[in-house]
Design a protein that fits this description.
It is a single chain. The chain has one domain (2-146): Orthogonal Bundle (Cytochrome Bc1 Complex, Chain D, domain 2). Helices cover 43% and strands 3% of the residues. The protein has helices at residues 2-18, 28-35, 81-88, 95-103, 105-113, 129-140; strands at 44-45, 51-53. Helix 2 (28-35) packs across helix 6 (129-140) and helix 4 (95-103) crosses helix 5 (105-113). The N and C termini lie far apart (36 Å).
């Protein structure tokens, strides 16, 4: 009986991490602070048009529901040709791909596409794997499945 309670308690604690079906190992609260660096170009806006994070910036794509989403798939944003090629080649934003991308977008695309001429329109590089992991955990909270 004690083990049932232990499992239930563990599930309650882990619930927010798995709420959108995309496990995130970072600290979402710390990721919120990291997002301040991204808010100049990005917004998190749900399908109803409510701004959940950021300030309606439009330089970069909306990051709503990014966890598990195909790259370059936001129809309301004009992506660069190499980002589009990565999306067409099957790039999906998992914690691993997202963390790698935000630390060096151009290097990531060059490796993913096996094209040393590939370039990302995102010139910003988020320094530090921990910040990138925390940012993914923060963004993973915003999911269409949760009705956010």
């Amino acid at each position: 009986m004690k083990s049932v309670f232990a499992i239930a308690a563990a599930m309650l604690i882990a619930g927010p991490v798995f709420a959108d079906g995309h496990a995130a190992s970072g600290d979402a609260a710390a990721g919120e602070a990291v997002f301040a660096k991204c808010a100049a170009c990005h917004v998190v806006m749900n399908d109803a048009g409510e701004t959940l994070a950021g300030k309606r910036a439009k330089t970069g794509p909306n990051l709503f529901n990014i966890a598990g989403k195909a790259a370059a798939s936001n129809e309301d944003f004009k992506y660069g040709k190499d980002a589009l090629a990565a999306g067409e080649a099957g790039l999906v934003w998992t914690e691993e791909t997202f963390v790698s991308y935000v630390q060096d977008p151009t290097a990531f695309l060059r490796e993913f596409l096996d094209n040393k001429r590939a370039r990302s329109k995102m010139s910003f590089k988020l320094r530090g794997e921990e910040d990138a992991t925390n940012l993914y955990a923060y963004l993973a909270q915003f999911s269409a499945e949760e009705g956010s």
